[in-house]
Amino acid sequence: MAKKAKFYVVWQGRKTGIFTDWKECEAQIKGFEDARYKSFESIQEAETAIQRDYWDFVSKKESKPAIKDIPVNIGKPIKNSIAVDAAWNTSSGDMEYQGVYYATGERIFLQGPFKDGTNNIGEFLAIVHALAYLQKKESELPIYSDSRTAIGWIKKKHANTKLVLTPRNKPVFEMLQRAERWLASNSFNNKILKWETEYWGENPADFGRK
C-alpha cells in the first residue's frame, strides 16, 4: 500500500512555505534556531495553516513563551504607534484589513472584504495604507505588523504574491498596483516593525476570529 503523502508547512526556517517532501522540509529547519513547522494530511489544510499563526496549530503541551522569557532585545512594543492586520476567510476566500492606534485601540481604517484575496496581500495593503495615512498627517509614528512576509514586500516595494488574477479578485490586483506605485514614488521615515505575537499577545489590530 502506497504511503499517504503529507504536506509540511514551515512558518520559520531557511525558507518558508509548503513542502511535499520531508527531506526538502528538513533542509529548511535542521539546525535552524527556533524553527517552526508542522505536517498536514491535505494540501487544503496546509494552505489554510500557512496563512495563519504557528501557535494556532501546536499541541496543548507546547505553549507560547511566558512574558518573563521575553528576550532583552525585543523589549516592549511602542504604545505611540499604529498596528495593522488582515483577516482571510478560509471558506470564502474573502480578505479584509484594518489599522488601529495602539495606545487607545481606536480604529483608523477598515477596508474590505475583497473577493479571493490572501492574508499576505491584506497585510501588505494595510501597511501601505498606514504609510499613506501617516504621510498625510505628517507623522513618523512606527507601524506594527505581525507578517514578516508583508514587511519583506514593503522593503522590496513589490508584493511577490503567487495569487492568480481572476475576474473576482481583479479589484485586489488593482489595489496592489496602486500600493506598489505609491511605494515607488514616495519616501517615508516611519519604521515598519514586527509585532512579536508570541511575547506580546495578539496584534492590537487582530480581527479576533481565530
From TrEMBL:
One of its GO terms (molecular function) is RNA-DNA hybrid ribonuclease activity. It catalyses: Endonucleolytic cleavage to 5'-phosphomonoester. It is found in: Cytoplasm. The keyword Nucleotidyltransferase does not apply. Gene3D superfamilies: Ribonuclease H-like superfamily/Ribonuclease H, Ribonuclease H1, N-terminal domain. Coiled coil: none annotated. It comes from the Bacteria. Its EC number is 3.1.26.4. Residues 95-210 form the RNase H type-1 domain. Endonuclease that specifically degrades the RNA of RNA-DNA hybrids. This is Ribonuclease H. It comes from Dyadobacter arcticus.
